[in-house]
Amino acid sequence: ILVLRTTLAFSIVKIFKYPAATALVVAIAIGQVGEYSYILVEEGNRLKILPDNAYDILVACSVVSIAFNSLLFQILKPWIAKRVFKKSSLRVATGPIMEEGEPEVEVMKPKALVIGYGPIGQSAVICLREQGYHVMVVDRDIDVISKLKEAHFEALYGDAAQPQLLEKAQLENTQLIVITIPDFQATKNMIRTIQHLNPYIKVIARIRFKTDLENFEYVDIPLVCDEEAASKTLTDTLKRFIKSRL
């Protein structure tokens, strides 16, 4: 059980090109006998396709696998921690996300949240960091979030329109949010959720077409029409906005 399940889980995670440390954590976590096995054994006994002692064997395997699972975690914990929290020189767009030797948490800097990490979001992150902000990224691409976390960069995976995710982002300590996704309806939903959680937070949003402005009710939020202005306008808007707040 321990060898086969762990090996299979590790191989599957590596096939999807995740780091070895991530694959190992997942493999060890699911290497033990799970609760679903008890349901299968009970069903097998009901259908009389398993021997009478099958349930006892399963309980014994469960106890042993859980015990060895915890032991494996303790043995490999130093190696996993070293790999997971190792700093990286990952670069995006035109500048580095996290320079070597930079502190993990920039406590004294104002905090900004960038939603969406496409080309526009990457430009926004670089601009905000140049302006002295500590930046957190929210994105729905798990591969993007994994790479950011490998680079020791603060990031959250999920839909930013969900209040639960934004609560994890600690909006009470955030001064600025930049929404870079092109979906106008999703942007409106995010703004509605953000203002419900923190009506005082400042928001800059990206839209695709100027015609969307006709039905836009949040008149106090600066918007960038990316289809016509591209990322340069967003960074210029950010710089003007930040200077106006000083």
Secondary structure layout plus pairing:
Layout: H1 2-15, H2 20-29, H3 36-46, H4 54-84, E1 91-92, E2 95-96, E3 111-115, H5 119-130, E4 134-139, H6 142-150, E5 155-157, H7 163-168, E6 176-179, H8 184-197, E7 202-207, E8 223-225, H9 226-245
Parallel strand pairs: 3-4, 3-6, 4-5, 6-7, 7-8
Antiparallel strand pairs: 1-2
Helix pairs in contact: 1-2, 2-4, 3-4, 5-9
Shape: elongated
Radius of gyration: 24 Å
Question: If you average the pLDDT, what whole number results?
Answer: 77
Unreliably modeled segments: 84-107
What is the end-to-end distance? 61 Å
Structural class: alpha/beta
Q: Tell me the β content.
A: 5-15%
Question: Order of SSEs, N→C?
Answer: HHHHEEEHEHEHEHEEH
Q: What percent of residues adopt helix (DSSP H or I)?
A: 40-55%
Number of strands: 8
**Strand order across the largest sheet:** 5-4-3-6-7-8
Biggest sheet layout: 6 strands, parallel
Number of helical elements: 9
Description of the structure:
- With 246 residues, the protein is α/β, with parallel strands linked by helices.
- Helices cover 52% and strands 13% of the residues.
- It has nine helices and eight strands.
- It has helices at residues 2-15, 20-29, 36-46, 54-84, 119-130, 142-150, 163-168, 184-197, 226-245, and strands at residues 91-92, 95-96, 111-115, 134-139, 155-157, 176-179, 202-207, 223-225.
- A six-stranded parallel sheet has the order 5-4-3-6-7-8, sandwiched between helices. Strands 1-2 form a two-stranded antiparallel sheet.
- Helix 5 links the parallel strand 3 and strand 4 (134-139).
- Helix 1 (2-15) runs antiparallel to helix 2.
- The longest helix has 31 residues, at 54-84.
- The N and C termini lie far apart (61 Å).
